[in-house]
Amino acid sequence: MIKRFLVFLLVLTTFLNGIYSFSEDKEIPARLQTEVIKLRHISFTKPIEETIKTIIDTDYSGNAFFTFDKKNNAIIVTATNVTIDKIKRFINKFDVKGIPVNLKIYILTESKEKGDIKKLPKSLVNKLEKINIYGAEILANAFITSKTGKSVMVSLKDPDYGTQFQITFFLTEDGNKIGLYDFTVYKITKEKVQAYYKDKPIPSQDVYKKWKIIQSSYSISPNDPLIIGISGDNNVDYIFAVTMIK
């Protein structure tokens, strides 16, 4: 009987010690470490910055932060190991060596009357018909060249309204597909266009006004154009159509 009591007492003591140790561990602050993540093939863009901010906010220490070393094109992160690993995985997804690719971008608007869209690539016409656009006008078009892993900022001007648009894309690793880098389309104010093209640092809130994307797909191939619908001021809807040229 005494032997059983002693065994019970030993088990109870071990259990209580475990609870006490666990409560002590909770008082220990999270260990932070600093790591330099160098960008090899991409630049530090606004979408990258916003994504890293989101990851940093999830760090359980509550004290994580990061800075960007412009001279060395590197991100300096102070956070827990878990958060640093998340940021590394995110960066590695896009920081890859490039393959040159040519793209053609159309800005289209829906027409009330059936317009002539037969001049567009057949695959694009089929895609437009599938999303029930019975006619479309080409407002502007542009050619751009990019590389895998590089973000591409495309700025176009609507000749009818004088509106500046900007949209960001990225190329996939095999160089055969392109997708949206982030889900934001920007309207660039006329007052800031000149300074913008001179690559002067301008606070984003003074340059851009966000427009909501109302329809999008994630990637395209030469036979499957990317269609992006956006809604802007005064309920004016625009359709961006992107095709790849080999």
Provide structural commentary.
Residues 34-97 form the NolW-like domain. Pfam families: Secretin_N. InterPro entries: NolW-like, NolW-like_sf. This is NolW-like domain-containing protein. It comes from Thermotomaculum hydrothermale. With 246 residues, the chain is an alpha+beta fold. The protein has 2 domains: 33-94, Ribosomal Protein S8, Chain: A, domain 1 (2-Layer Sandwich), CATH 3.30.1370.120; 101-245, no CATH class. It has 6 helices and 11 strands. It has helices at 2-27, 46-57, 81-94, 122-130, 190-197, 204-207; strands at residues 33-38, 65-69, 74-79, 101-110, 136-146, 151-157, 164-171, 178-188, 208-215, 226-231, 237-245. Strands 5-4-11-10-9-8-7-6 form an 8-stranded antiparallel beta sheet. A hairpin with a 6-residue loop joins strand 7 and strand 8 (178-188). Helix 2 (46-57) runs antiparallel to helix 3. Mean pLDDT is 66; it is low at 22-27 and 190-208.
Helix/strand layout:
Layout lengths: L1 H26 L5 E6 L7 H12 L7 E5 L4 E6 L1 H14 L6 E10 L11 H9 L5 E11 L4 E7 L6 E8 L6 E11 L1 H8 L6 H4 E8 L10 E6 L5 E9 L1
Antiparallel strand pairs: 1-3, 2-3, 4-5, 4-11, 6-7, 7-8, 8-9, 9-10, 10-11
Organism: Thermotomaculum hydrothermale
InterPro entries: NolW-like, NolW-like_sf
Pfam family, one: Secretin_N
